[in-house]
Structures are given as C-alpha cells and as structure tokens.
Amino acid sequence: MTGLSRSFGKQTVDEQERERRIRRVFEAVAARYDLMNDLMSLGIHRLWKRKLVRLAAPRSGQTIIDLAGGTGDVAALMAAPDRHVIVCDPSLPMMEVGRARGHAHVQWLEGTGEQMPLPSASVDTLTIAFGIRNVTRVEDALVEVLRVLKPGGRFLCLEFSTPHAPVRPFYNLFSFTIIPRLGAWIANAPEAYNYLVESIRRFPDQRAFKALIEQAGFADVSYCNLSFGIACIHIGRRPGPA
Ligand SMILES: C[S@@+](CC[C@H](N)C(=O)[O-])C[C@H]1O[C@@H](n2cnc3c(N)ncnc32)[C@H](O)[C@@H]1O
User: Fold this and answer.
1) Ligand 1 atom closest to Cα of residue 68
2) Residue 170: what pLDDT?
3) Which residue's CA is minimally distant from atom 19 of ligand 1?
4) pLDDT confidence of 35, banded at 50, 70, 90?
5) Contacts of 225 by beta carbon, 8 Å cutoff, 6+ apart
6) Residue 32 in this model has a pLDDT that exceeds 90
7) Is 134 close to ligand 1, i.e. is its CB under 6 Å away?
8) How far is residue 181's CA from residue 184's CA, in Å, rounded to a whole number?
9) Ligand 1 within 6 A of 180 CB?
10) Cα–Cα distance between 242 and 239 in angstroms, integer?
11) Which of 26, 36, 106 maximizes ligand 1 atoms within 8 Å of its Cβ, making it the mutation to test the pocket?
C-alpha cells in the first residue's frame, strides 16, 4: 500500500530514551502549555490553527482525529454534535488539562503517532498540529496515518518549518534566546523549552518533509507557508476514491 515500509523492529535504546524525555517534557509543561504558546507566538498560533481547521473543512458525519492533540484546542475548533472528533495523544497530563476545560463533543484517546488504537480505514480526516516533530519514527507515523485513513481521506500537518531567509536571523534570535527564558520564567521548565527549540531546528524543511510524505504513499501532497515560512501546513490524501 505504501512506498515506505514500517520499521516494525524494536525501538533502539536511544529511541526509548528520546521517547521518555519527550513524555517528561509534556508532563512538565502541561499546566502552562497553552499560556506559553500564546506568549511565545504572540497569539499567532491560534490563527495558524484556525487556518488548519479551515483547510480540514470538518463535515457532518465524519470521524476526525487530531493526533498529538495535547490539550485539545484544535479538536475544540472542529468539534460539533454531528461528528466524531477525537484527540489522540500519549500524554495523559496534557489531555487531563484539556478535559478539565470541558471542550464539548471532544473525545480523548491515548495513543502515539506510531501506533493509534484505531481500525484501518476508519478516519475521514487526520490533523496534527506541532506534533509530528515529537514523533520518534516519523516514517512509521506516516505509514500509520495512511493505515487509519479511509481511501480519499486527508492528512493535514501544521508544523514549524524553515522561515524565508530574510526573517531567519530575527527568528533564530527569538527562538534561541527568548523562548528558553520564557520557558524558565513562566513554565519553570527551561530544559523543556530548549528541547522544543532544538526539535524545531532539526525538523526537515518544507520540501524535504513533502518528499517524506510522498514516499510514505500519500497522493496530491502540497504545502502552504504561514508567516514567512515560520510554520507550514502540509496536506496529503490517501490514494483511492473518497
Ligand atoms: C507541542 S504539543 C502540541 C499540542 C497541540 N497539538 C497544539 O498544537 O497545541 C506536542 C504533543 O505531541 C504529543 N506527542 C509526543 N510524542 C508523541 C508521539 N509519539 N505521537 C503522538 N503525539 C506525541 C505530546 O504529548 C504533546 O501533546
């Protein structure tokens, strides 16, 4: 079904350690996560998420997964009584914060990008916002997304990306100096925010990530830059009739 094969083997010790570290990061920041997002992005992450939801165009009767959905803010924008909107995330503390907010018509499911407890071909649309770079095996996660999508189902991924050259120096200054300090003052978790900045820096740029999605077997892959390429939305479709 797909170009990339899943590396089914056991995780290496490094991968296990990375996964544990990521879990600790989100445990540490869960309570202050949304406040930090507002401060770090000056509220712009909300506009990016609204754009993601407009492109996802959720409809009546659909099953929609927000993978790595954390505290559920993207899911809440898509939720309505006539559809199933489910946050799928490995971090119980992040989902607890979201549950406590009482988002209406949002369901919560523990799972990772590499392994979602969902039947094959059961999902109409899968969104992921600022989550894919936390996944240890991105290729495996893309194959897993294809598995759960119905033929014709769509994948939409909002992620930080590589900004256009003229804005890069300002962006680097902001992300390498101000964000870790905000992380230390507001969330009392400087390490966590060093990790977040580092994971953004290491993530493939727009074109390289598009190529990865295509290699996994998605069709009609495209992307649109947001705020000079600071963030980007990639879209792909599971081949087959909708
Ligand atoms: C930066 S937060 C994004 C939360 C939310 N989507 C947002 O945009 O505000 C990243 C989320 O990815 C989750 N995560 C970490 N490892 C993951 C994995 N392997 N698969 C799926 N989600 C993962 C974390 O628990 C966390 O909730």
Assistant:
1) 22
2) 92
3) 135
4) confident
5) 161, 164, 206, 231, 232
6) no
7) yes
8) 5
9) no
10) 9
11) 26
Give the CA angle between residues 143, 80, 102 to the nearest 5°: 95
Cα separation, 237 vs 32, whole angstroms: 34
Both tokens of 124, joined, read: 């109409």
Average pLDDT value over all residues in the chain: 91
Residue type, 90: P
Is the Cβ–Cβ distance between 71 and 51 less than 8 Å? no
Say how many residues make up the chain: 242
Nearest CA to 155 among 48, 67, 47, 46? 67
CA 131 to ligand 1 center in whole angstroms: 4
**C-alpha–C-alpha distance, residues 118 and 137, integer Å:** 19
Atom of ligand 1 nearest to the CA of 135: 19
Tokens of 214: 């295509």
60-78 mean pLDDT: 98
Ligand 1 contacts CB of residue 175 (under 6 A): no
- 102 alpha carbon – ligand 1 mean position (Å): 19
The predicted-structure confidence for 46-62, as pLDDT tens digits, reads as follows 999 999 999 999 999 99
Does the pLDDT at position 4 exceed 60? no
